[in-house]
Amino acid sequence: AAGELARLAAQEAGTQLTPAPTRLGDVVPAPELVRPEPAADFTLPADTTIRVSPDPTALAVAERLADLLRPATGYPLPVVEADHPEPAGGLALVLAEQPALGLEGYQLDVTPTGVRISAATAAGLHHGTQTLRQLLPAAIESTTPVRTTWTLPGGSITDRPRFPYRGAMLDVARHFFGVDEVLQVIDHLARYKLNHLHLHLTDDQGWRIAVESRPRLTTIGGSTAVGDAPGGWYTPADYQRIVAYAADRHLTVVPEIDLPGHTNAALTAYPELAPDGTTPAPYTGTDVGFSYVDPANARTYEFVTDVLEEVAARTPGPFLHIGGDEAFKVKGTAYTGFVERVQHIVAGLGKTVVGWHQLAPAAHNEGRVLQWWGTDGADPATADAVRRGARLILSPGNHAYLDMKYAPDTPIGHDWAGLIDVRRAYDWDPATQVADVPAAAVLGVEAPLWTESVTSLAEVEFMLLPRLPAIAELGWSPRATHDWAAFRARLAGQGPRWASAGIAFHRSPEIPWP
Ligand code: TNX
C-alpha cells in the first residue's frame, strides 16, 4: 500500500517512476536470434537524432520511425543523412549488403552508444524499427507526451522471416470501412511484420472499388451493405492512398474481385451478366452461394477483362485475387472453364493469380497461388494442384479465421469453423497443415477477417487483437521458437502497448496480461 501511495504521489507530482526496461527477447513475432548484453542498456537522450544511409527508401523508413517516436517522447528526433551512419548517442539505420539477412531481415544492436539497425533492404530496416518500437517502454504507444526514461535493453538481435508471404484480409464488402480505418488496420499489420494486405473488395452485399469503364458497379453496386449499414466505395484516389500508405509500411495490397459467385452487387448494376438476364434485388443478408455471373455469356469475359485491367493498372503489387469460393451454382467444367479463362486474363495483365483453394481443379497457370481455408488437412484436390505447380497461402478456417468467436459469449463473429481463442490461433504449423504438400510449396500465411457481423474499427481491432500476432508469428518466426508458454508471456507484454495506444482488444483469459 505504501508503494502504491508513493506511485500515486509521484504521478500527481507529474513524474512517473522509471519503468524496468523490456527484455530483449520480449518481441512479437519472436526474432530468430537474441543475444542480451545486460550491461549495454541505452536510454534515448532528448536530443537523439536518427542517422540514416543516403537512400530515399531508407530515408522514408527513418521518417516513419520518427513519426512513431515523436508523440510519446515529445523529442524532436531530426532525421539526418550520413554516408556511414553511426548511432553517436542516438539511432542509426544502415543500408548495407548482408546476404545472410535475405530480402526482409535485419540486425539490431543496442549498445551504450545507441541503437544501430542494419539491413540490405528498406523492408529489413522497416521490420527492425518495429522491433525497436517493442523494445521501448509500452508508453511509447501513447499519442501524447509521457515523461519517463526511454530505455532499451542491451544486446543484439539477428532476424529474418520464415515465410515470404505474411498477410491479413479485411472484408470491406459486407461492411464498408473507409480509407482512414483501413490505414489504421495497416498500422496494426505493420507492427507484427506482416507484408500483405488482402482487400476483399466485392461481394453480394457491395462493390467497393470504382471501375471507370463500369461506373454503375459502385454507384449502384456500392450503395448497400449487410443490414441497414451504409454502403461506400473507394475512388481511384482513395485506393491509391491505401496502396501508397501500405507501401510506405512495406505492405503489398492484394485486391480481390470475387468471381464467379459472390456477385449479386455487380448483377444489380449490370443485370445483362446474370444467367437469366433479370435484375436481382439488392442483397443485404448474410447467406452465400446463390449469385453468379454467367460463365456461358461472352459479355461476362468482357466485363471481367475491363474490371481486372483497371484494378491491375492501379495495383503495383504482383497479385490479383479472383476469389472463386462458394460458387455453388457453377459446377464441373462450367466452373473450371471459367476459372481457366480468368486465370489467363490475369496472366495477360502481367499479374500472378491468387484464388481460394476451390480453384484447385482448374488447369495450372504459371505461378498461381491458392489460398487454403479448409479445416481438414486431408485435401487431395489441393495437394494435386500443388503437384501441378500451385503454391499455397495458409488460412485454415479453424485456426486463422479472425471472424470466428473467441468463446461462446463473444458478442460478434461466427462459429462454423469452431471457437478460436489465442492458443488455437497459435497451435498449428503452416508447413504441415495440408497433407502431401511439401513445405517448399507454402508461400506463407494469411488471417482473414470477414465482416458480416463486424461493423466498426473498434470491432475490427477486437477481432484482430490478440489473435493477429499469433498468425504473424507463425509466418515470421523460426519453428524452433514455437512454444505456447513463451508466446503467451511475450504476448502479454503487448496488452499495455495496445492500452497506451487506446486500442480495444479482447482480454483473452488464456493470456497473463499484466
Ligand atoms: C466463407 S471463406 C466465405 C465467406 C464468408 C465466411 C464467413 C470463404 C472463401 N468464403 O464468404 O464470409 O465463410 O466465415
Describe this structure in words.
The chain is α/β, with parallel strands linked by helices. It has 16 helices and 19 strands. The chain has helices at residues 2-12, 56-73, 122-135, 179-191, 216-219, 236-248, 264-269, 298-313, 332-348, 380-387, 397-400, 422-426, 457-464, 467-476, 484-492, 495-501; strands at 33-36, 42-43, 50-52, 79-81, 90-95, 106-111, 114-119, 151-152, 155-159, 165-171, 196-200, 202-203, 206-207, 252-259, 319-323, 352-356, 369-372, 391-394, 442-449. The strands form four sheets. An eight-stranded parallel barrel has the order 10-11-14-15-16-17-18-19, surrounded by seven helices. A hairpin with a 2-residue loop joins strand 12 (202-203) and strand 13. Helix 2 packs parallel to helix 3. The radius of gyration is 24 Å and the shape is globular. The model has no long low-confidence stretch (mean pLDDT 96). It binds ligand TNX. Ligand TNX is lined by residues 288, 325-326, 356, 373, 401, 403, 414, 450, 452.
